[in-house]
Amino acid sequence: MIILFEEYQYKTEKLKQVLSERYFFPINSIYSKINYVGYYFNPIINNSVIIFPKVFINENGLAFDVFEPETLVLPTAEIRNKLSNTGKDKIIFEISTWLFRAIQQFNKRHFYNSISENQFLNQVVTNLEEKSNTELDIILSLLKFYKENQSLFSFISKSAHSQQNKINWHKTINKKQPIIQNNIPIYIDLATTRKKINYDEELLVLFYSTLNFIKGKYAFDFYPPQNYELIKGHQFENILRKGCRYLKSIKYKYYSDKMISLYNLLYAFFERSEKTQSKKQIEEILLIKDFNIVFEDMIDDLIGDSKLLPELKNHADGKQVDHIYKYKSLLVEDEIYFVGDSKYYKPQNSVGKYSKAKQFTYAKNVIQYNIDLFNDNKLDKPLRYRENLTEGYNITPNFFISAFVNKDFDFSKSYLDETGKPIMQTHFENRLFDRDTLFVQSYNINFLFVLSSYLTNNSSLKTNFKKDTQKKFRERLVSFINDKYHFYILEPNDNSFIEKHFKLLNGKVYKPSHLTEELILALEKPDRTDIFTKIKSDIKTKKEYYLT
């Protein structure tokens, strides 16, 4: 298996040895880079190429530190040994299979996507049709069968060896000559029960030998049982050339569903091997251009809400929001939409000015969409974007989320954490409740956790992560705003309070739905005490308040 990395610079002459030229483009006369992620089987070299996402490229080079730029394309025995000694060979295989399956999953979720190239490539039809299997598909199926049928293997082994070498005393006494010692016959030559050929066991030997062979190619956990003598080396190479012929000769020896399934898996493997050796095998392709779209789908599957109106994600100006969900507003009882954007960068890159401006535009589009509903009295009651008395706007939370590769290659934890303080955009100073006062948070998440979660069948894991993450995003923003603003609850003397002080309080006061006569006043720290001097005679009470 050959490992390449998206957007990494390789010598063009090296790439030509393993990858079709349509999947990389030259940077200069010497180097080229790849803009795809996924799986490619090259029948000429009879090897699989896995292209990893650029998140595996860090400031020091590559996440797998044993690789070197010049030897990466064609991994040497030395590199394979280093990978094996550190255990990273098994990690690479695991990540490769997750990536392969993630792209398959994306195609299932978005059947009519325009970035997948798994059907036609420059008029060349690949063999990745709906019912076809790639080499990696077959290997994963063999491994799955191995993991799920341990009890079957044990049963076959015990049954096959239970009668082996059992002495047939009737034949021994009648046909064998004993030695007499002290009037006691001692039989040296014993007649044993002859065991018939056990075809189940014969198929298991072929199965274990096959797994042992592909383990050397793909590096995964497999420890063959000690009670079987495996076919190895030149003998197995002969099997690769005529495995189908041999399997056909024993085809009708199997009756159980499990053994028939194993037979079919092995036949698929050897049939494919024979095609490759006879040059009949064509290239296999499951590649994704613009992997950022797949990454967005992974994140949205984890934290987004797929049941929202399409207009909330697909805006009238042609922009499309990556993630949006409804959650408890920063102002207690009301609800608001949290708007997010996935950032698919190399780990050393940061969010640029263009991305920030675009994210604020997303937020403004969502605000305007809900204000239009509000003006038409069609906005759901729990949602609050503006209230009429103060003409103040609710706080609209925004966030960026990007990925990194955990140094220990841990799939089990998200390691989700905020990176720096929220970015703030305003049109007017000290107006928290203005529609143009916006905040955007930035978070980092473990890419391997996202990748594995995208494919998990554990719905409770996703549900719990979504709840915890949505709570975390809100609490972190609440903490930031509490640090930046002083809040007060005011009780006006009468209904003319807002009209009398509108210019002074515009964008500074807001009336959440849970308050009846009172208002919330927000003042950016340090307080401007002149405001209280001007409104003091028009309020009954004033008390400090904190967002919770």
Q: How is the main sheet built?
A: 6 strands, mixed
User: How widely separated are the two ends?
Assistant: 53 Å
What is the average per-residue confidence, as pLDDT, rounded to a whole number?
82
Number of helices: 17
State Rg. Answer: 33 Å
Q: Which stretches are poorly predicted, pLDDT < 50 over at least 5 residues? A: 68-74, 118-127
Binned strand content: 15-25%
User: Helix/strand-derived class?
Assistant: alpha+beta
Q: Choose one word for the global shape.
A: elongated
The total strand number stands at 23
The proportion of residues forming helix, as a percent range, comes to 25-40%
Record the SSE blueprint.
Blueprint: E1 2-5, E2 10-11, H1 12-18, E3 24-26, E4 31-34, E5 36-42, E6 47-52, E7 57-58, E8 61-62, H2 77-86, H3 88-109, E9 120-121, E10 124-125, H4 135-148, H5 150-162, H6 169-175, E11 179-181, E12 184-186, H7 199-218, H8 233-249, H9 257-277, E13 284-289, H10 292-303, H11 310-313, E14 323-328, E15 335-343, H12 353-375, E16 397-404, E17 417-418, E18 423-425, E19 438-446, H13 447-455, H14 459-484, E20 485-492, H15 497-500, H16 502-505, E21 509-510, E22 519-524, H17 530-535, E23 539-545
Parallel strand pairs: 1-6, 15-16, 16-19
Antiparallel strand pairs: 2-4, 3-4, 5-6, 5-13, 7-8, 9-10, 11-12, 14-15, 17-19, 18-19, 20-22, 20-23, 21-22
